Amino acid sequence: MLVRARNFLHTRTGHLALTYLAIIMAMTIVFSIVIFAIASNQFDRPLPAHGEFRISRFTDGDTDIDTLFLQRASEAKAGLLISLLVLNVGMLLFGVWLSIYLARLTMEPIEHAMEEQSRFVSDASHELRTPLTALQSMNEVALRRKKITESEARELAAANVDQAAKLHGLTSSLLGLIATNHDTKQGPVDLQGAVGDAMATVVTAAQQKHVTVEDKVPAVTVKANQSQLVQVIRILLDNAVKYSNDDGEITITAKPHGTGVRLSVIDKGVGIHADDLPHIFSRFYRADASRSKEQQDGYGIGLAIAKSISDHMRWNISVHSTLGKGSTFSLDLPTITKS
Ligand code: ADP
To answer: What is the pLDDT of residues 190-202, one digit of tens each?
Structure first.
């Protein structure tokens, strides 16, 4: 028990609890001193001058009235002192409980944020280390060789460029993840235009895989932040292309949903296993490649960015998927109501 208490006092929550307790006790003690001083002042007030009335009502045999009053005053002061001491001890016990409770309440979200932060740093470092280790070992092997042909040197340079491109992609994604929360201004946005902008960025990748993208989005104005909306749609489209099979089909629709509109990106690609579905919006999570047969390049950051933006903008992002059949990612957006 004592060891547990000592360990607790060495934690951040323990330090804060001690600070709270010190504040509570300082206030209680100051109040007690003030109350005692005021009361003592009242008790020590001199008696009015002797008169007939006092003598008839208060004299008691041999006892002089002043002595009686002084005795009463010192008894009252002692009683008050004991009461205040008991109150302070009670306040100390209550203060211990209250300060621990308040410290835990304060520290919980802070510690959660700090844990998140350190997990992010450790996950990011882990992801960065993989291409860096590949770069280092490839070059070390090449340096240990006595001779290196021109074609080998070219191969090495190409592999270096490949790993550097991976590092570049990863750092850009990490920066994207950090920078998602800045621009939150929302206004009327033409959904067709936003989808068009997002499609333009995936055209080349889609053409390379002979994937067709059918845009069925009607003319509708949504309340959104243009650049953030384009970024979320681009991430969903990018994934739809990436996880589609060659000659696949992707459809983008927008249908009324509640008071707004539901934008859906539908692909007929590899799909997602039910076990992976709850995790795909988490940072650095990548579905088990063995389930979808082929591994695609990526870091598991895209959907985390899409989710982070959607949460900030209060849009709802959801997914329905069947392994081997395809996935539908949906984004619920508020529409602009004309006044
Ligand atoms: P990345 O695609 O870079 O791995 P994401 O965060 O965009 O990272 O996606 C996380 C995981 O979700 C992917 O690794 C993939 O397993 C799965 N996923 C996302 N979109 C799709 C999709 N349209 N079809 C199948 N799987 C998908």
So the answer is: 999 999 999 999 9
pLDDT at residue number 292: 53
Q: According to the 3-state scheme, what is the secondary structure of the chain? A: CHHHHHHHHCCHHHHHHHHHHHHHHHHHHHHHHHHHHHHHHHHCCCCCCCCHHHHHHHCECCECHHHHHHHHHHHHHHHHHHHHHHHHHHHHHHHHHHHHHHHHHHHHHHHHHHHHHHHHHHHHHHHHHHHHHHHHHHHHHHHHCCCCCHHHHHHHHHHHHHHHHHHHHHHHHHHHHHHHHCCCCCEEEEHHHHHHHHHHHHHHHHHHCCCEEEECCCCCEEEECHHHHHHHHHHHHHHHHHCCCCCCEEEEEEEEECCEEEEEEEECCCCCCCCCHHHCCCCCCCCCHHHCCCCCCCCCCHHHHHHHHHHHHCCEEEEEEECCCEEEEEEEEEECCCC
299 alpha carbon to ligand 1 midpoint, in Å? 9
Closest ligand 1 atom number to CA of residue 173: 3
From the CA of 75, how far away is ligand 1's center (Å)? 80
Which protein residues are within 6 Å of ligand 1, measured from CB? 239-240, 243, 267, 269-272, 280, 285-287, 298-304, 327
Residues of the chain under the 70 pLDDT cut: 47-63, 180-183, 289-295, 337-339
pTM across the whole model: 0.69
User: What pLDDT was estimated at residue 42?
Assistant: 86
